[in-house]
Design goal:
The structure is a homodimer of 156-residue chains. Chain A is mainly α and 156 residues long. Chain A has six helices and two strands, in the order ααββαααα. Chain A has helices spanning 3-10, 14-22, 41-55, 60-71, 77-110, 121-127, and strands at residues 30-31, 37-38. In chain A, strands 1-2 form a two-stranded antiparallel sheet. In chain A, strand 1 (30-31) and strand 2 form a beta hairpin. The longest helix of chain A is centred in the middle third of the chain and has 34 residues, at 77-110. The radius of gyration of chain A is 24 Å and the shape is elongated. The two termini of chain A are 34 Å apart. Chains A and B meet through helix 3, helix 4, helix 5 and helix 6 of A and helix 3, helix 4, helix 5 and helix 6 of B. The first copy, chain A, binds a DNA duplex (30 and 30 nucleotides) through residues 2-4, 13-16, 18-19, 32, 34-37, 54, 59-60, 152-153, 156.
Chain lengths: 156, 156
DNA sequence: GTAGGGCTTCCCATCATGGGAAGGTCAAGC
DNA sequence: GCTTGACCTTCCCATGATGGGAAGCCCTAC
């Protein structure tokens, strides 16, 4: 199997397969005399594993850990489970951040007439300055709850 | 106000302020004779606007659009509203993807005993190959519904 | 006059992914 | 046997938003 065929068979692009090899996530593939990479069923299986793990949002270093456990016949399922639970928690945190943003956005959009007039509570909110140019520094929309700095790295 | 003071006043790091200036998101700041950037209340106001928009997850090009509308006294609030609604929809899509991943992860974790034994449905699922090494290609967990390719770009 | 802290620019790194160029290889068709 | 087109190789660059750090200038306080 060439890299292109392996890519088609696994859903991992040829570019990514080379990258994963380069960073050591997957072992270096065999080569033909001409230097072409060669993939067998086992390699395809591994690549599919990686692909599925990526589909669950695992970062590459976590996938490396999963692969190591996969290959370790004497693993403890607790270790695998921990990775999965951690990942779920990580995603839930991201979801919470995003939901908080959505809540704010939808609240703002709701209060904007959305017509030809220029008045817009959305811009007013974005421009709100704790007593610098015009507005009072109090609650602009009550408990909209725009998270005061939801975290610099929103989507890692 | 120097760039450091503006950074402290707006929550945008000095690095980011320079970056926003470089890409044209905010106008170039004035300079002292020695070349130091100088910021006034108006600049601070703009930076705060940018910061708040970032907090709502807007990409930089969308923030540019918001800033343009903000400065345009004859804007239609409908245009602003559209940006906000689009943004909310974008975030919702991301949330849906993440939630689908979380569902799968938690379902898998639930079915893993998580003890010292090596058997692990999580690894079995990741390793599942449509009839290649061991398992039958049928539904492994019934309707877990791992999304068949939730999209290559999970979190833009 | 000097020390320390802040400013400048420039380069590099992240993370996972894609685009593209330059050149070698293979298989099919003539 | 030769051409053609599809595929492979490596190498470099770009993304988006952010941080880190170096080398060098500037300002203020002592």
């Amino acid at each position: 199997m060439t890299i292109g065929e392996a890519a088609a068979a696994t859903g991992v692009s040829a570019k990514m397969i080379r990258y994963y090899e380069e960073i050591g996530l997957v072992p270096a593939a065999g080569r033909t005399a001409a230097g072409y990479r060669v993939y067998g069923p086992h390699d395809v299986h591994t690549l599919r594993f990686v692909r599925r793990a990526r589909d669950l949002g695992f970062a590459v270093d976590r996938i490396a850990a999963l692969l190591a456990l996969w290959r370790d016949r004497s693993r403890a399922s607790a270790d695998v489970r921990r990775l999965a639970v951690d990942q779920a928690a990580l995603l839930r945190r991201r979801i919470d951040e995003l939901q908080s943003m959505v809540r704010t956005l939808e609240h703002l959009a709701e209060h904007c007439h959305g017509d030809a007039r220029p008045d817009c509570p959305i811009l007013d909110d974005l421009a709100a300055t704790a007593g610098e140019c015009h507005a009072a520094p109090d609650a602009r929309f009550g408990s909209t709850g725009r998270p005061h700095r939801p975290s610099p790295k929103e989507m890692p």
